[in-house]
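Obj: model holo form, ligand = zinc ion.
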Amino acid sequence: MGQGLEDLAKIVTVIPDITGLDREFDYSVNDSLAWNKNGVPVGFDQLEIGTVVNITIHNRKARGWIVDKKLGSDREVIPLTSLYSIGPNQDTVELCKWAAFQYGGPIRSFLVAGSPKRKLIPSEGSLSRPKLKSELKSMKLGDEQNQIINEIYSPNGAVASPKIILRLPPKAGSFWLIQAMVERSPLKTLLVVLGNHNRVHEYETKLTNARISFASPDALFLDHAKYQVVMGLRNAAFARIENEQLGGVLVIESDAYSLKSDRAPTWDASEVLLKRCEMANVPCVLVSSVPKVTQLSSVRLHTIDRTRERSLWPAIHITDANSEDPVYAPFGPDLTEIMRDATRSHQVLVIWNKLGKVRSLVCKSCHLPVTCPNCRSSLVPSGEGSTMLTCELCGFDQAKFCQKCGSTKLANYNRGVLKVREELEKILGPTKKVSVVTKDNQDLDGEVIVGTNAVLSRVDNAFAVVWPDIDREILMPNILAVEELMSNLAQAARICPSRAQDGSGGIFVRTRFPDHPVIKSLLLGDPGIIANFELERRKTLDLPPFKAVAEISGVPIKIKEYNDLISKVDLLVLGPSPSGSYLLKANSDMELSQSINQAKMSMKSSKGVRIAVGSIS
Ligand SMILES: [Zn+2]
Ligand SMILES: [Zn+2]
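Output (holo structure tokens):
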């Protein structure tokens, strides 16, 4: 008692930038810290939370982020070595803390996403740079657009509904939304996050023409000017913008799976941004042609007139392949014809995805793929040499036979991209070049291009996009496969000619399930059909959005240690799967996050355990 403030030690809490070390350490700060040798000293009061600093930890030199400042009586704390670089700001650090809890991952991975890629030191000039002013080109909105803007903002400018998802068809365009939202609050910053890097360049040109000031998240570290738009890909979710300066968030193509990290922690930019807007109390607008059901469950949906929505999908051509032989006529006459029409300026893309170990079985006598009666995904052999078939989604099993005709003669049906090209070259002859896009081959030169989904983000325009065997993807025993497919179909729709432009191009799909909800949704330009199907299926399987899930995988001995801890809390643990992973289920995100963090904290080290929140493979 009676201790004066000046007697207290100035302490910062630091998260080291060391993989696998997910802990906080305290350091004391004296007032002689400076950004460089001759620089002005930075006092404790000016020291920004988020700053990257040099520290020693167990006699080792390392870097870390300041995540907290306090006064304490502990005089034994070792001193901070020096300042290293500008990092995220305090509001972004708070967001990183939330994300670390939500996804049960180290806060370090989020701080990295919000930090500059190289060392950046503030200079005198950068701090005094004046605020950018720009005159907006005024724009006139149509009725439909006005309706949307009124959904986002109430007429008097107060926030009416902070979270909204706009279902706009692929050919609708969404740049006007950026303009309209900037016009609403021209002195604040609109954060625009995109799922497709091709779109970044397209929008940069449009922003310049519209005289809207904009920057990439990287520019914000040194530049204290205020911009009307900050735009980037997934990591832009952690852009260095203060809550006070943030005017709103717009996520374009929120269904894009590039917005979700597939490495643990498996965070989703849309989810992080919904939280960010909640913290800053500003509107969050997600735009998607095919909204994900997890987003639909937490955000209000706005749709446009159905007839208009359908008209803004390109022409869709469905071929019923039931009368063809899958082995000897892999493309069918319709698709072959469209590929014969291909030219350099009218390219045809053939989508053929690698499905990994998935062994899809086809009946040799009626040619129908063998599927699960509950969830319509592929049935696979229960094990090496087994006479049984299993559904990897719901666990249904049956003997090896075709449900339609009773035949027990089933054939393995799988081929790679190179094999497909070979077959196409045979069919099309030497007058057409068939190029292939794979990891090591980026040839976009042919009249016909065969490749995985990746092709769709490399090509800006195509005459037609063809799925010769969409059933392989529809039937994949992976709950996320259908939404990923819808997202790819929407992306294909964006690069195809519109209905009005050319009736003979568009999306071509060959299927043995013409009544499947994916096909119906596509044909009618109605994503509501597939959303209802997904919701039903997930309800039956107790999956998100009805339950919160996380997949636990990694080193077997560490998984066991983790599972022993997690089984003490009231959580459903399913598994192990054939690959040794476990699935945790909880009633809410909060319950799940609390449990996985609790278990992680009880472990000496969580190295070797991969926690993937929201993943079901
Ligand atoms: Zn059959
Ligand atoms: Zn099933």
